[in-house]
Structure to design on (286 residues):
């Protein structure tokens, strides 16, 4: 039995990973480009949908405005809301009133159950949020694999709104594996907002899909090799009497080697695609 637990190891590793190669300090108020959208946002966003906005609504307008201004004055300039968060778009507009529109970014979401004319709906969203444009508009909480067909009329109007510069970037949010599996390679998505966790619980899958907790193949297949590698290292540490600093350094080196291996595989995939005359693969950022 190893005398080192994962908790002890990870605590020690945190110190080792503070080496110069990992020393670039990031802040919640840094302005960064969100994926390939071209939209710059602060790393931390201010959300308004806790329990569908109930938590924010119960603050009342005055207290909610105080909270928004507190965040704004300290550099948080990315605010998000949705029509589904009853009343919150108007409350957020009131809280932001008087602030320069180009000093913050605004994301809203198009309600799935909205049956009216999408153009008129988007215009209503603009009035509710007191904004001529949205930095980001998402199709809210898509639930199935054929969502692009189901909501084609809405997606087409959002695309037209982008041409008209009413929307600067568009995308979708999802809570389930069925739509999530369709996201890679979808060129309509400038932005994807995901809610996932390691064991597939609370993924909002449809009722005809597996709803129990279990091994999510896409996630489990990635995590399992790392877990086995860590177990092996901890066993080796116990056998050789390694201290926490030595374990942390060994893990750091193993992670670097693993990343080199992944980078090599990505490079090979690009070379293979080029040789076959196929579209080049797109990889997520490190």
């Amino acid at each position: 039995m190893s005398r080192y637990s994962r908790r002890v190891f990870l605590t020690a590793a945190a110190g080792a990973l503070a080496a110069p190669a990992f020393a670039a300090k990031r802040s919640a108020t840094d302005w960064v480009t969100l994926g390939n959208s071209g939209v710059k946002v602060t790393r931390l966003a201010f959300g308004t949908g806790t329990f569908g906005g109930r938590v924010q609504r119960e603050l009342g307008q005055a207290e909610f405005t105080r909270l928004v201004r507190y965040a704004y004055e300290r550099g948080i300039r990315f605010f998000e809301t949705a029509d589904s968060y009853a009343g919150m778009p108007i409350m957020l507009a009131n809280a932001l009133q008087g602030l320069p529109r180009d000093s913050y970014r605004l994301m809203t979401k198009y309600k799935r159950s909205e049956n009216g004319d999408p153009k008129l709906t988007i215009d209503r969203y603009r009035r509710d949020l007191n904004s001529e444009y949205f930095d980001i508009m998402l199709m809210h909480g898509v639930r199935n694999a054929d969502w692009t067909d189901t909501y084609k009329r809405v997606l087409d109007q959002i695309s037209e709104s982008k041409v008209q510069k009413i929307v600067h970037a568009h995308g979708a949010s999802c809570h389930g594996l069925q739509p999530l599996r369709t996201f890679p390679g979808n060129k309509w998505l400038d932005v994807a907002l995901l809610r996932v966790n390691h064991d597939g619980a609370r993924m909002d899958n449809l009722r005809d899909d597996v709803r129990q907790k279990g091994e999510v193949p896409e996630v489990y297949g990635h995590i399992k090799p790392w877990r086995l590698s860590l177990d092996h290292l901890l066993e080796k540490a116990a056998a050789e009497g390694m201290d926490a600093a030595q374990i942390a350094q060994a893990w750091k080196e193993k992670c670097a080697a693993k990343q080199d291996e992944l980078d090599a595989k990505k490079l090979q995939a690009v070379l293979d695609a080029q040789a076959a005359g196929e579209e080049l693969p797109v990889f997520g950022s490190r």
Summary: The chain has ten helices and seven strands. The mean pLDDT is 82. The two ends are 34 Å apart (CA to CA).
